[in-house]
Amino acid sequence: MMSNTIFMHPAAYFIIGAMLLPFAKRLKLQKALLLIVPLLAFYQIHHLPASFGICHFMGFELTFGRVDKLTYVFLHVFTLMALIGSIYGLHVKESGQHMAAFLYVAGSLGTTLAGDYLTLFIFWELMAFASVFLVWYRKKKRSIEAGYRYLLVHTTGGLILLAGIFLRYHNLHDLTFTRIAVDGATTADYLIMIGFMLNAAVPPIHAWLPDAYPEATVTGAVYMCAFTTKTAVYVLARGFPGFTALAILGAIMTVYGVAYAVIENDARRILAYHIVSQVGYMVCGVGIGTAMAINGACAHAYAHILYKALLFMGVGSVLEMTGKSKLSDLGGLYKYMPWSLVFTVIGGIAISGFPLTSGFISKSMIIAAAGVDHRIFIMLMLSLAAVGTFLSVGIKLPYFIWFGKDSGVKAKESYWNMQLGMFIAAFMCFFLGFYPEYLYRMLPYPVNWHPYTSYHLSETFQLLGFTGLGFYLMVNYLKPAAKSNLDLDWFYRKGALVFMWLASKPIGKANDWIGEVYRTIGYRFTLAVAKAMSWFDWEGIDWVLDGSAKGVVRGGDELRKLQTGKIQHYIGGAAVALCIILIIVVLI
Amino acid sequence: MIAQLFGYLREHSVALKWIFFAYLAFTLVFDFFAERHHAHFWGDSVIGFWTLFGIFGCLGMIVVFKGLSHVWLVKGEDYYDE
User: Which domain holds residue A82?
Assistant: First the structure.
């Protein structure tokens, strides 16, 4: 590939931007760079050819750029969101956080543009490894722990995906990333689908999301809520449209996420669970697989990124200014942070699908597509989740933060840049509601759907109105308490404790005992065998594998010297390493 | 200024309540006049169906989910730290 096509790839802007950030900070240009990079990328995505960046590497054909309408709509909202996130985070001085965010966005854009599974996998992992820093940068014990769990779960998902990719290559000798036919899907394809589903937070492999997102930094959570799950929706829409399993799981997700959003206490945990619910609509749309449903999934992804980010920005403002995010600690903030309230409520009514907001014109498409496809039960589940959405995020969340009991918490209104970020997102929520054609024109299939019919309006008026009545009647029963609820992460969080106990007690005991036996009986014998084995390992296998093991050990020793224990150095190192890999891969 | 507006509205919550009830009545009346061209299932042809769906869906979800939380799922915030 020619080097000039590197600069065609929007992910390259973010990777280069990430590396320039520390220098820009020295020159007091960090804020300018934070705005220029997303703006350039947003400009660039409008000028991409249908295919670019094709290169051959070790016998594989890698496609870094494949652009069609499905790609475009996601690129459009990802770069727009990167701009909003940058503005919202302008006050953050640490370059490291911005670098992590930029690399994360780059991973997401790279995945979206990837035309083959190998390229996709590289960027897929970049997303996971960059985003975990957005959790760790909160620098609290809980965040560090949650970050490790997040990383472990995503590594597992990545390995499942990689297994699927290898198996697929073994079967077909083809790694192009295209649509997989429902009746021709093999084990390899299902492994790939599970890898994708993990990132889409499809239960039972969803618990990483509400575990990690509430522990992320204020600005980090705003990025995280936008990219990982929606990139997963994109790859599912690209590879697996029409898989009924997705339609059913998606419908379950919508209600599952809402259930926890109703009972949880931490505002960002409520919103995190609600991502599961919202992504459920998109996964369901992909599973239904008709042109209308795919359009709906894309439209909903676009609208959702903006209003969910708006909600995370709203409660993030409260967290930034008060240090609190639990509903039970908050209340009565309308006197101090009224603009954050206004913006959060706009996010809340948009996500609930009020007429003239973006949720109304996107969610309705998926629900109607389920109806047109005669999947009535799924349609009713999606409608029920819409009721729960308004209940939990539309009313409960803003009510208990800004009204409810007066908690005595006093705060200033958030910084101007945070409010500007919220304003842009809020503007887009209304803009899309008033002018849906702007979004509909971007969708992959021609749109034959008019949201503003009298029946659909009537349905929405009733659903939202009487949900409000339900809240009014039950408000005392919904009062938040300083509690948390179990979810399926129990299995690995408590399971790890069992493992640790096993390792320390019975296995440790057994080990000691066996060690004793060895020492008395088999010591000499073992030593001889081990020596022989190790010689074989070192000389024999290494001879076969061309000395690579010795090389790895030497490399490992070199690497160890580089470790300083500072998070900034790690992330800087990761950025440099990534860039070198990219340059090597792209230029060869 | 806007904070004072919210304060003013809070002081007049009784009026707001009646406006809200009037809105609920309006939604039911509106449903009589909505055009039902594309009924997906039987519920679409019943006037007030989504009213019942909204209120019972909402109350049902609160009771079921809060109940599940209460009897099974709820734990202290430090549950995993213990």
Answer: 3-174+192-489
